[in-house]
Amino acid sequence: RGDLIVPTGVKYNFAGSYENQVRAMKRLSIVIPLSLAVILILLHLQFHSLLTSVIIFAGVFVAWGGGFMLIWLYGQPWFLDFSVFGTNIAQLFHVQPINMSVAVWVGFLALFGIATDDGVVMATRLKQSIKERKPKTVAEIRNAIVEGGCLRIRACLMTSATTILALLPVLTVTGRGADLMVPMAIPIFGGMLIALITLFVVPVLYSSVAEWQLKFNEKLHV
C-alpha cells in the first residue's frame, strides 16, 4: 500500500453510491430524532400525561436494542447454523454480516412506530382499570394493574405475533430487491421479538407511578 499523492491543481471526491449514501445518512440524522419526537408528542396527546407517555415511549428503546441485537447475531458464524430437512437455516435467512446501510435505518424508523402499539394498548386498559376501580391502597393499585394487564395481554401478543410472522417471508426472500428488503426487515424482526418485554415493563412502571402518586397525595393530606 502506498500514499496517493495528488498533484497541484488536481482534486478528487467520492461519488456514485457512496455519495448517495452519505446524503441519505445526513437526512436520516434529522428524520430519526424528528420521528421520535413526533411519536412522543402523539403519545402525550393521547394520554395527556408526560409520565405515561414516557413509560410507553420506553418500549421504543427496548425494541431499538432488540434490532441491534439481531444485527449483531447476523454477524456471528454460529447463528442459525443448522439444517432442517436438508435446508440450511442460516442460508435460508441470509445470515451474514449486516452493514448499517440506509435500508437498516429505514427499518428502524418503521420499528419505532410499531414498537409503541403494544404499549398503547396496554396503557389504555391500565388507565381505564385504575379509573374504574379507584384504588385507595398500594395493594388495590397492583390488583387493578394485574387485572387490566391480563385483559390486554392476549391482544398484545396477537398484534406482535402477526407482525413477526408477516416478516418471515421478507427475511427469506430472494431475487431482485432482496438486498434492500432483508436488511430493512432485520431490525423490525429483532425489535419486535424483544419488544414483548414491554408487556411486563409497561404495567410495572405504570404501577410504580400510580403508587408514587398515591403516596404523594397521602402526604399532602396529612
Beta-strand residue percentage: under 5%
Give a short account of the largest sheet.
Answer: 2 strands, antiparallel
* Net shape: globular
Look at the helices and sheets and give the structural class.
mainly alpha
> Over the alpha carbons, how many angstroms does the gyration radius reach?
23 Å
Q: Could you give the distance between the termini?
A: 78 Å
**Helix-strand pattern, N to C?**
HHEEHHHHH
Question: Which SSEs are present, and which pair or pack?
Answer:
Blueprint: H1 17-47, H2 50-74, E1 83-84, E2 87-88, H3 89-92, H4 102-133, H5 138-171, H6 178-195, H7 198-220
Antiparallel strand pairs: 1-2
Can you summarize this structure?
This protein has 222 residues and is an all-alpha fold. It is 75% helix and 2% strand. The radius of gyration is 23 Å and the shape is globular.
Description:
The chain is an all-alpha fold and 222 residues long. The protein has a single domain, classed as Multidrug efflux transporter AcrB transmembrane fold, CATH 1.20.1640.10. It is built from 7 helices and 2 strands; from the N terminus they run ααββααααα. Strands 1-2 form a two-stranded antiparallel ribbon. Strand 1 and strand 2 form a beta hairpin. Helix 2 runs antiparallel to helix 7 and helix 4 packs parallel to helix 6. The longest helix is centred in the C-terminal third of the chain and has 34 residues. The model has no long low-confidence stretch (mean pLDDT 87).
Task: Write a concise keyword list for the protein shown above.
222 residues, mainly alpha, Multidrug efflux transporter AcrB transmembrane fold, two-stranded antiparallel ribbon, 7 helices, 2% strand
